[in-house]
Design a protein that fits this description.
311 residues; mainly alpha; two-stranded parallel ribbon
Length: 311
């Protein structure tokens, strides 16, 4: 045992000196912070200036906030409408000026479209014709409709009693037409392109829409074709007619839901209502039976009644 301790715990003179120096260094490191604190006198920091700057900043911020609260309205604030309501009176839409349309609350751009339509030979024969003006809001029409008064002209009476027809005045009359109007129910795509403002794309759209409808019953239905507005329509209105009544009709008692909803005037809800009514109440006896469906408005009924039949 003595030999064991002597071998592992006996130091030479140089090793003893090294251990002594290491202990002295560790002792010096341990007491140095205490000595530094005792000999170093720190002066307190003066926060007075900083406090003054902070208080000045807070005062400025509060002032800006008060100003913003005084000038900025809340998001849900509604400005009071100080605009005087338009004074409406009985009028003929065929004779109003631009300023008069604007005074009635119609936007200047729409007023310009109306005047362009009239200047190119167009005319309003009944108050509902105003709804055909491209861009006119339904709310504007509802507001103006009670005040629209259009005198009944002799030419208008004749038009109602006879097929809709005009004298063809286009510089390039259709082949075989000899200067007559184009029948939009029997014309080909190439014949339609001879109308002013109708190219190959629009003529193909007219043919496609005609096939979907089953034929046109009014020339104004061309306004329902995408790309034909009231201005373009006025350019060729006098050059078109409907002289035949060959309309493809839908059998109200035998047509399926899919067949009905393909028609542009019969939406899916209306088609479903017709089929459901037929299955519960039996076959339709007259076209007027359709009015029993609350889902069908008077306008819907007026539009698609020429395209249905009772077998």
């Amino acid at each position: 045992m003595r030999e064991f301790f002597k071998e592992y715990f006996t130091f030479s003179s140089s090793e003893r000196n090294g251990v002594l120096i290491l202990l002295l260094v560790l002792f010096a490191v341990a007491i140095t912070p205490s000595i530094m604190v005792r000999f170093h006198k720190s002066e307190p920091f003066d926060f007075t200036t900083l406090d003054e700057e902070v208080q000045a900043f807070i005062a400025t911020t509060n002032a800006d906030t008060m100003d913003s609260h005084a000038t900025i309205q809340p998001f849900n604030h509604v400005e009071e409408d100080t605009t005087k309501p338009a004074t409406l009176y009985q009028f003929d839409p065929n004779h109003l000026t631009r300023d008069e349309w604007i005074a009635f609350g119609i936007k200047p751009g729409i007023a310009k479209i109306i005047l362009n339509y009239l200047s190119k030979g167009g005319r309003f024969y009944k108050k509902e014709d105003l709804k055909k003006i491209y861009g006119l809001q339904e709310s504007d029409y509802i507001k103006l409709a009670p005040y629209i008064t259009i005198p009944l002209l002799q030419t208008q009476t004749q038009t109602q009693a006879q097929p809709y027809t005009h004298t063809f005045t286009h510089p390039n009359p259709p082949a075989g037409g000899e200067g007559g109007p184009i029948c939009i129910n029997s014309s080909t795509a190439s014949e339609l392109t001879q109308l002013y403002g109708i190219g190959e794309i629009l003529s193909s759209r007219i043919i496609k829409y005609r096939d979907l409808l089953g034929g046109f019953v009014e020339v104004t239905q061309l306004l329902e074709v995408y790309g034909i507005d009231s201005i373009r329509y006025a350019n060729f209105e006098k050059n078109i007619t409907i002289v035949d009544s060959s309309i493809s009709r839908i059998s109200l008692n035998t047509a399926t839901f899919e067949q009905m909803k393909k028609h542009p005037y019969i939406s899916a809800p209306i088609a479903g209502g017709l089929v459901k009514y037929r299955s519960k109440a039996g076959p339709f006896k007259t076209k007027e039976d359709i009015k029993e469906l609350t889902i069908i408005s008077n306008e819907d009924y007026r539009r698609f009644i020429p395209y249905i039949e009772i077998e």
